[in-house]
Each structure stands twice: as structure tokens, then as C-alpha cells.
């Protein structure tokens, strides 16, 4: 349950009411159009806030009333139940792109992929390989968004957030964000912090990219891992790679009616990886080999996409309105008339199948609202 703040004084309540009058308010409002899955039922009430002050006042009002609150940014990481959300949904639509040398501050509501394009156009490096990722800037520290060898935790310096527990606006430095693979302090405490702004320190490399870490990107560009290329070229290459996998939003392409990668790559202990490897050999023979990447002392990361494919869930799998993408096994998609239950049924089938074959339990990356796997 969301923390409840102390009741405001009468004068504060009057000021808050005047602020909320400027916020767009809808009742019994459809939420599906606000998500990239285009799934989910309505919210009892939907507010759209365009300033930090409006965000804070809307959150305070909901918390003071004990009303369930759902924060929505770009909607690219949400799975909302067919019954919708019984409470207040708050869509953060704040704007703000402030660049000072290599320092960048983004309002939470800024479209992330547009912000990446603007930093590259300014000749700065550090987020160019995160091009094409749907969603808003405020979501990036929550998930520690990453792709093609970059993670936002490498460039974020501070996150400005509203702390629902204390009622204060706080500035949290990178070292206190507890960033890890697709995780952070904000994800660990989802009912505490509402991200308002994110600050980054980028690199002026005379128009060059950061050193390329991802083998596929380097190979596509014809260079060695660790080399730099034009940041513009790196961004364009990533967009092409993502587009070929259905990972760039296109309203005409149902393969992009998804949340991108639906499952995180499993991280296994040495014992778990040994048991997994034995299953791989049993299924694929003595030469069977699964992807394996160091993930810290005693830990190995493997590929969720590989697991899904080798367990028999190939591209385009499914006959119903929710299917695996025809371009990438890691994306579950809405073919146009799916329900959330259709999607979850497919997700559960994939999870059970991978577990039965390899003994590994996949974990969903998108946040679920009113439903669970």
C-alpha cells in the first residue's frame, strides 16, 4: 500500500485544490492507449500533470486520501489488467531538456529516444546506444535501462524525486541509487519515490561515440569492440538493429505492440549454472552450449531469448491474439485484439516451458498492475 502522508492544513488544501484544477482530469479513463501493449482496462480517475508541482500535488492528494496511485510515464513497461485500475492514474507529461556543456537534465516526462537524438546531435556520447528505447526519461533510472552495451547508470549523476514517505523533494546521487542489472533503489521501493528529473554527465568526444562494448554493434559497424565511431552512426546503427527486431515503435507493426523484452536475462549462481548446463547437454547433446556472460563473483548471466527459442517457443509462436514477435523471441506481442489475459496466458506458457526444459525460471521485466504471472 502507498504511504499516507499527514493531512495538510486547510490553507494547504485550498492551494492544492487550485493547483489540481489545472491538471487534466478524466474519469473511467481508458489506460490501454497510454501503453505500448495497448492493453488494460480503465482507471477510476486519470490525471495528466505537466509540471513538477502538479505531479507532487497530485501524489500528495492521493496519498492524503489513501487513494491507490498508479504512475504512468511512456507506458512502455506496463501490463495493466483487463479490469483496469481502481484508483488514480497519474500520467507524467512534464517537459524539460537542459544541456550545459556535458551536463544534461531531463524532466521525467521527456520522450527518451528524442532526448538521445538531441544529445547525439549536440556531439555528446554516453547514451547513443540507448536510441530507440520507448518510454520516458523518468523511467530510465527505475529500470536502469540498458541495451547494446550501455546502461543509464553509467551516465546518471543524480535523480531528483518526490519522497512519498517524508513528503520532501530529494536529490539522490548515483552512488545511492543502488543500480544493478535492470534494477535500482526506485524499483525496490516502488511506492516511495516518484522520479521528477534525471541528471546525466555525458562525454564530449569530438562527435565520437563511447567505446563500443556490444559485439553485435561493433560487428555491424565493421570495427573491434572497444573502438569508437561517429556517435551519429552508432545511434543510426542501433536504430536499425532494434528495428530489425521489432524494438522500435511503429503503430503499423504489431511486432512493436509490446513492452520490448518481456523477460530479463537470468543471472545464475555457480551451482545453478552447473545444473543448467547439464540440462543443456541433455537436450542439445555434448556440444550444446548456452550463452554465458560474467555477472559478478560466482554469477553468470545467460540469454532469455536463447532459452525461449531452444525450449521450442520460436519467432511468431502462438495462434491466438497474443503471440511471440515474428522478429524476436524475447518480445510478447498484441496482434491487435488481444486482452491482458491472452498475453499473460502466453507468458505463463513460456515460463513453464523454459522451466520444464532448462530448470530456469524467467522473470518478467514489465511492471504488472492488478495482475501477475
TrEMBL record:
Keywords: Cell cycle, Cell division, Cell shape, Cell wall biogenesis/degradation, Cytoplasm, FAD, Flavoprotein, NADP, Oxidoreductase, Peptidoglycan synthesis
Cofactor(s) listed: FAD
PROSITE patterns in the cross-refs: FAD_PCMH
EC number: 1.3.1.98
Pathway(s) served: Cell wall biogenesis; peptidoglycan biosynthesis
Subcellular location per the Swiss-Prot or TrEMBL entry: Cytoplasm
Group of enzyme by EC: oxidoreductase
List of catalytic residues: 182, 261 (proton donor), 365
Highest taxon above the source species: Bacteria
One Pfam family of this chain: FAD_binding_4
Cross-referenced InterPro entries: FAD-bd_PCMH, FAD-bd_PCMH-like_sf, FAD-bd_PCMH_sub1, FAD-bd_PCMH_sub2, MurB, MurB_C, MurB_C_sf, Oxid_FAD_bind_N
Domain FAD-binding PCMH-type: start-end pairs: 39-205
Catalysed conversion reaction: UDP-N-acetyl-alpha-D-muramate + NADP(+) = UDP-N-acetyl-3-O-(1-carboxyvinyl)-alpha-D-glucosamine + NADPH + H(+)
Annotated GO MF terms: UDP-N-acetylmuramate dehydrogenase activity
Family, per entry: Belongs to the MurB family.
Function: Cell wall formation.
Name used for this protein in its record: UDP-N-acetylenolpyruvoylglucosamine reductase
Organism (species): Streptomyces endophyticus
Gene: murB
Amino acid at each position: 500500500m502507498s504511504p499516507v502522508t499527514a493531512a495538510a492544513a486547510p490553507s494547504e488544501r485550498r492551494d492544492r485544490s487550485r493547483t489540481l484544477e489545472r491538471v487534466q482530469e478524466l474519469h473511467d479513463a481508458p489506460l490501454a492507449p497510454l501503453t505500448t501493449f495497448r492493453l488494460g482496462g480503465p482507471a477510476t480517475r486519470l490525471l495528466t500533470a505537466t509540471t513538477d508541482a502538479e505531479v507532487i500535488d497530485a501524489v500528495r492528494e492521493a496519498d492524503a486520501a489513501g487513494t491507490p496511485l498508479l504512475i504512468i510515464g511512456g507506458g512502455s513497461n506496463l501490463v495493466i489488467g483487463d479490469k483496469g485500475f481502481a484508483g488514480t492514474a497519474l500520467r507524467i507529461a512534464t517537459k524539460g531538456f537542459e544541456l550545459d556543456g556535458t551536463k544534461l537534465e531531463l524532466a521525467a516526462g521527456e520522450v527518451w529516444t528524442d532526448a538521445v537524438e538531441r544529445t547525439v546531435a549536440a556531439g555528446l556520447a554516453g547514451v547513443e546506444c540507448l536510441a530507440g528505447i520507448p518510454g520516458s526519461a523518468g523511467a530510465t533510472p527505475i529500470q536502469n535501462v540498458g541495451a547494446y552495451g550501455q546502461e543509464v547508470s553509467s551516465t546518471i549523476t543524480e535523480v531528483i524525486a518526490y519522497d512519498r514517505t517524508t513528503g520532501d523533494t530529494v536529490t539522490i546521487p548515483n552512488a545511492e541509487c543502488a543500480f544493478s542489472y535492470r534494477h535500482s533503489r526506485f524499483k525496490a521501493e516502488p511506492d516511495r519515490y516518484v522520479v521528477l528529473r534525471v541528471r546525466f554527465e555525458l562525454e564530449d568526444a569530438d562527435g565520437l561515440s563511447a567505446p563500443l562494448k556490444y559485439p553485435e554493434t561493433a560487428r555491424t559497424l565493421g570495427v573491434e569492440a572497444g573502438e569508437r565511431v561517429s556517435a551519429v552512426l552508432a545511434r543510426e546503427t542501433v536504430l536499425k538493429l532494434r528495428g530489425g527486431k521489432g524494438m522500435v515503435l511503429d503503430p503499423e507493426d504489431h511486432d512493436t505492440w509490446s513492452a520490448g523484452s518481456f523477460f530479463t536475462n537470468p543471472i545464475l549462481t555457480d551451482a545453478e549454472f552447473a545444473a543448467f548446463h547439464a540440462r543443456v547437454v541433455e537436450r542439445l547433446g555434448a556440444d550444446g552450449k548456452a550463452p554465458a556472460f560474467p555477472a559478478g563473483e560466482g554469477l553468470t548471466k545467460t540469454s532469455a531469448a536463447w532459452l525461449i527459442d531452444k525450449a521450442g517457443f520460436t519467432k511468431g509462436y502462438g495462434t491466438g491474439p497474443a503471440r511471440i514477435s515474428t522478429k524476436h523471441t524475447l518480445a510478447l506481442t498484441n496482434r491487435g485484439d488481444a486482452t491482458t489475459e491472452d498475453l499473460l496466458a502466453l507468458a505463463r506458457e513460456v515460463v513453464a516451458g523454459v522451466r520444464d526444459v532448462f530448470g530456469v525460471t524467467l522473470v518478467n521485466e514489465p511492471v504488472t498492475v492488478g495482475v501477475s504471472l
